[in-house]
């Protein structure tokens, strides 16, 4: 009896801390990360998956004696809590979990700080509750001080390992292929726990680094064969139509298709774009294909017709690669190539990646007059941005290829009252409510830009590629979204369809415009622009195909492996019939899913292996 009592004294503080930490993580899973489960087994997994890492991390305290040991217990709880907390903040913004590459994007942290205060909640203090209790227990001398016994550390480590193995086995039964589908981060967290997920992610990242070392020139052959197999001939009517013209690319921040040709309280949300669409080719089944790299991912796709990474931002991880980018190709064709964006040049590591893409010029924040009056939220207001860009544009050699990246319609969608041209929505989501006025404002700024281009005589000699960079309203706002869309609920299928972003090709003076319903994505922009310019793309390493090609296949794959064709949609493990949204057998999606997986795999191979250095 005395023995048991002694053992209990040794472990009780440790056990209490482990218990608190697991409870806290579970509560956070449910209420912070809103993780849903389908059955009781999944629920149990969710409850116990924090256990192995908690036992191990807090068990490190057994390497110490006395007061230090007790303090280490608190420190390790705090450490794990910090991991939870940073994930929580990230999740509130991106509906996603942190990855190692994202963590190293520290240069973005400063710029994000404005948004961070928006993301904090008073209830976050709850995260510190157990730590405070543990600390009080120590201060009140209610925890006995123990001397170190090496065996104990071995015991807890073995316990942690066994718990983990049992956890993993159950998870594999529940979710076959769990570890091969590492792009599904929620699934990983749900099954092996958030801390273990971070360890696993670290392992995957280091592996991808190794791939470059082992790649050689023969690897590119497979990619080129795939390209030739999937190459689609251009539409002869449009091939070369833009030759010699300026190309103006407008990357519109967080613009989704659901606002196009829609009204809020009777007012058009995007009146200018709606008019422009009538005079353009408009693609209404066009998807963004970005992941954690957001705007930078969209830039990567457009410049290379390669897919971005499934985690982190390729702009950070692979800026040292060799690329055969659109700006580089256009430079060779005598174009002057530039980007205009009023933000720090190092944001998203743009300065490095733009050098790799061989842009002639990056007009960053230093080229703009940015002050308190003309800024809001993330920086220079779109209207001022466009106005000031006109001068820069006028001074460029012609023909030019220039990309503009807007900023005002960025989370948390701040806008001064005087710039509100439409009211806020009145749902439970402040984010969605505020989205409409900033979208309306961006539309207004665009209208102004077009007027100015006409005044300066640039409009007629240019063609325009206009698209939304990625979603602006995350999955966290489903309820508000269902109110706006007047639906009972937002299903997984709806959520996927919400990943559509507007895409316009506007050719001044062109008459055969129409709304096109091709299933397509950002990956298709590069070959489209090249064909409009009369450039051959057959032997180029790219994965998209010309949006105007008569031979186009109705297919697009999103970076999370979801695929869309004209007949079916596959997302989150379920296959739907397009016609009526009914769940159907996986067989209906199988071919497209495989095609999508191949595309992503080959594209990753190009990036991780830095294969374009052999091209
Ligand atoms: C930052 C701007 C926004 O310069 O492009 O980036 P995002 O957060 O949308 O990726
Ligand atoms: Mn963006």
UniProtKB/TrEMBL annotation:
A GO CC annotation given for this chain: plasma membrane
Sequence intervals crossing the membrane: 12-32, 44-64, 71-91, 119-140, 152-171
Keyword Membrane: yes
Superkingdom field: Bacteria
One GO molecular-function entry: metal ion binding
Mod. after translation: The conversion to 3-oxoalanine (also known as C-formylglycine, FGly), of a serine or cysteine residue in prokaryotes and of a cysteine residue in eukaryotes, is critical for catalytic activity.
Modified residues (3-oxoalanine (Ser)): 65
Residues that coordinate or bind Mn(2+): 253, 295, 469-470
InterPro entries given in the database record: Alkaline_phosphatase_core_sf (IPR017850), LtaS-like (IPR012160), OpgB/LTA_synthase_biosynth (IPR050448), Sulfatase_N (IPR000917)
UniProt KW keywords: Cell membrane, Manganese, Membrane, Metal-binding, Transmembrane, Transmembrane helix
Residues that hold substrate according to the record: 410
Keyword set includes Ligase: no
Location within or outside the cell: Cell membrane
Membrane topology of this protein: Multi-pass membrane protein
Active site per the UniProt annotation: 295
Domain Sulfatase N-terminal, residue spans: 245-534
Family label: Belongs to the LTA synthase family.
Stated name of the protein: Lipoteichoic acid synthase LtaS Type IIIa
Biological source species: Halalkalibacter akibai (strain ATCC 43226 / DSM 21942 / CIP 109018 / JCM 9157 / 1139)
